[in-house]
Specification:
The chain is α/β, with parallel strands linked by helices. It has one domain: Vaccinia Virus protein VP39 (Rossmann fold, 3-Layer(aba) Sandwich), CATH 3.40.50. The protein has ten helices and eight strands. Strands 1, 2, 3, 4, 5, 6, 7 and 8 form an eight-stranded mixed β-sheet that branches. Strand 4, helix 8 and strand 5 form a beta-alpha-beta unit. Helix 1 packs antiparallel against helix 3 and helix 6 runs parallel beside helix 7. The radius of gyration is 19 Å and the shape is globular. The N and C termini lie far apart (38 Å).
């Protein structure tokens, strides 16, 4: 059985965040849970609206609603792409053997769902070498830093409890958060830390910013121009032709060679249980997202 469980980790992070928020605002847990449900409803409506979602991630209870509602399913989907993509698996092992680390950048990574996904994939897959992950999270909502740091701590706590010394872990983590608004390409010269990554992940990123597609294209072109030859670009998004067309356009203009698209629909893995969210699940009684209808495609800078 894997040490990393999405719902267990997210439940611990949520419980801590709720406690801090309720104490600071001097409100009851029930009042906080009521606000979380309101955000769950609003967020769902925004994603189904057909326009660019307007979601108030600066509100801590909105961020908790995201962690509760869709973070586990999104992480499981990213992990599935890693499991299915042999080219990506081989690339990671080659990088670790050559460079003693693997540098991964998550665009619009929010709370660190991609970090969760990679941790569980490594935990279950156990590559021949210990993976040293240098993880860069880019998101314009700087408040997400609290969540991804909490997720990182929970991953490390589980590895330490199960395996003891860090030398025995399948994965060690280094991480950085950078607040970047991709619609402001004028500031790109200040973002030196996005250069030189080995793997870039854009999970549901294109469909979240489609009103700013030209800015996204410009940002991607500048980013790819500075990326190493043979760096990989993993796109994951809703299984709709318009997002496949958009990603193809972005890749063509940026100089990314795309492999074929892989359609994926499915459910959370059998080792995951929504009840592991803990107290908030018992109180809210809202079923988090457990399924997906999506696609993934891997690109390479040639």
């Amino acid at each position: 059985m894997p040490v990393i469980k999405y719902f267990e980790i997210l439940g611990k992070v949520i419980e801590s965040n709720i406690a801090q928020y309720a104490t600071l605002r001097k409100i009851t847990y029930d009042a906080a849970y009521t606000e979380v449900v309101r955000h769950l409803i609003n967020n769902s409506n925004e994603w189904k609206s057909g326009r660019q979602p307007q979601i108030p991630y600066h509100d801590p209870l909105c961020r908790i609603a995201y962690l509760y509602g869709i973070a586990a399913a999104n992480a499981n989907l990213v992990e599935k792409a890693f499991r299915e993509c042999t080219d990506l698996q081989n690339h990671i092992e080659e990088l670790q053997a050559r460079n003693d680390q693997v540098c991964v950048c998550a665009f619009g990574g929010g709370p660190g769902t991609e970090l969760l996904a990679i941790a569980k994939w490594v935990d279950k897959n156990r590559p021949s070498l210990q993976i040293t992950l240098d993880y860069l999270l880019l998101d314009k909502v700087s408040e997400w830093i609290e969540s991804w740091q909490a997720i990182k701590r929970q991953i490390e706590l589980r590895f330490r409890a199960d395996m003891g010394s860090k030398a025995n872990w399948p994965l060690t983590l280094n991480g950085t958060f950078s607040g970047i608004d991709i619609t402001d390409t004028s500031g790109f010269a200040n973002y030196g830390n996005v250069f030189g990554q080995d793997i870039y992940i854009m999970s549901y990123f294109v469909s979240e910013v489609f009103d700013d597609m030209e800015s996204l294209k410009d940002f991607t072109k500048m980013m790819v121009a500075h990326a190493p030859i043979n760096s990989k670009f993993l796109f994951i998004d809703r299984n709709e032709q318009k997002w496949k067309r958009s990603i193809t356009e972005i890749a063509d203009e940026a100089g990314i060679s795309l492999d074929r698209f892989h359609d994926v629909s499915g459910n959370m893995d059998n080792d995951e249980s929504k009840t592991d969210l803990g107290k908030i699940f018992d109180s809210v009684k809202w079923t988090p997202r457990l399924t997906w209808n999506a696609f993934w495609v891997l690109g390479t800078k040639n």
